[in-house]
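Render this sequence as a predicted structure.
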Amino acid sequence: MQEYTSDALVGTLVDNRYLIRSKLARGGMSTVYLATDRRLERDVALKVLHPHMTGDPQFLDRLGREAKAAARLSHPHVVGVLDQGDDGPLAYLVMEYIKGHTLRDVIKEKGALTPRLALALIDPIVEGLGAAHAAGLIHRDVKPENVLIADDGRIKIGDFGLARAITTTTSTGALIGTVAYLSPELVLGQQADARSDIYSLGIMLYEMITGRQPFDGEVPIQVAYQHVNSTVGPPSALVPGLAEELDELVQWCTANDPDKRPVDGNALLFELRHIRTNLSDAELDLRPPAALPAAATGAAAAGPGGSTPGRPATQPRAAAAEAHTEFLGGVQQPTEVISRGSNPTTVLAGRPRPGAYGPLAAPEEQELGAYPEDAPDGRPEPASKRAQRKQDREEEKARQRAAATPSRSLRAGNPRRRGLAWILVLVLVALLAAGAGWFFGMGPGSPGTIPQLANKTVAEAQQLLHTAGFESTTRDVFDDDVSPGLVVGSEPQAGQVVRKFQSVSLAVSKGPELFPLPQLTGMSLDAAKTALNGAGMALGPVTETYDEDAKAGTVLAQKPGKGTPAKHGTPVGLTVSKGPRPIPVPDVRGKEQDAAVAAVEAAGLKAVVAPEAVFDREVPKGAVVGQDPATGNLTRGGTVTLTISKGPKFVPVPDVFRKPEEEAVQALKDAGFEVKVNYAFGSSVLGLVAGQDKTGRQPEGSLVTITVT
């Protein structure tokens, strides 16, 4: 169900094209809305950057270049960047809208995942990053919140280009990233490349397998310090029995030295799939142990008397990085601005500064290197000293308020009049208190709980609200799941406790939003798939058939047809050409010419007679002695070349009279004749030829009989 949240931009038209329908999420850098592209009539995700990030024209220019680079990347596991621009004070990115949830939601719901599920989920992420790396794009902010899982099971990684644009814009040398997943080189302000994304993937895989991140701390600098100075331990320390290959995979990806990691996503993908193929079912379906209290699990991982290298002995709470960003629907890991200062190595490469791990004044101040109570020399003061300074300020404020309040009235006045005034004041206060008590206790200001209204008719929902003491308004929305005329949801949402004078807005379903199907016939199958994906539709059954006119792979028909109104996700069946039907070549060798030509043409092929006939001892004159091709298949109208026989060749018969038998036989054979020898006296006496039955010119290969005395 779509989430409905009040926002000033909801209902407005951005750049005269994008109609903002609802607010989806708010982060540290931007707010994401569900919008409708009125030009193309499709839903999109509109990311509007916060005003403090859009004041620099150079930044907007850089953001445009990064968006163009990301838009050139087209891959089924990468969220597509569709548009970028600005409308007055608004700077925005338009991205493909994925209806579903994030990998963070999966981890929160299931905790530690089985190796089979973890590898299946991370495989398309690595494939998408591999395609981006091959195109020269680096993500820089890989984390579960940026992995989107559609309701139909598609998995995509989003937010390419934004982190780089913002990182290269900050004048203070700040970098953008979620501290829990930052690579050591990014923490130290060094150049990022594909191996930085691989490190973040390794941290994410560790979290998927174990249900927790390898490093945490009271403030982000603690986590960043561990990324630089510690190593990620094997996940089998928390998941006993885990395959050794998975330990090696995680530690390969999270090596501190980038040169010891996979060079890019494609290199990692090859190894990942090799491991998936070779692990046994028992290893893939290993169930991680049930979630334990953080301290107990940390102690178990550390062993007696110490902590595991690269991991604190306890996990005191969820990562501090969650404090910055509000996401509708749950706590998320935000992208944080992490100040590097002028010399990050002095902060992180050695021991932490005194007091660096102390508590901060408020969650919004928990940025790496940002201390709310820094001493004049730039070094952080101890927590006790900061608390004392805060108490001194409060006492000073109290003294100022006391000095501004008179200790007595400047005019004493009439005592009786003062008494009457006090009575009137007390009566007025009592009346106000009674009125307030009624208003907030039983009247319109009393609290009430919004009832469950989803899937009810408008009349039923309004009656339930009226019974609960609420007034209501309605607004129509598209919804793929709720029938037209039924309530989709409310604002405030069901279960919230609010004052009864607050009006409740009911979102009433108009049914699914329908979009005309694109023209697919005449396209190649790959182009049709791309068009369906761009229109938000699904590929239905594909039927192949022979066609004499369309080349193989061409779409011949679609169902439903072009222009048919359909909701997003509707499967469209395609009929695809296999090309012309193949025709077996008939064997006409030995047939008379006319009969052979007729047989070839009857098969749907074209017969061509070779211009030169040839002699042949065995095939009679006028018959087919050879054909090309002799076997195999052709398509309709294909050509078969026929060679016609001129019959046997006539050659002169050698005169072998009075020649020795052996010489005579050899001469006849050399001339191309078969030889039969008869003996006049039953056997050879003189060995000379006394006669031969053929002379003159005879067909080559004929039998010549000689008589030997």
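Summary. The first strand starts at residue 13 and ends at 14. The longest helix spans residues 415-441.
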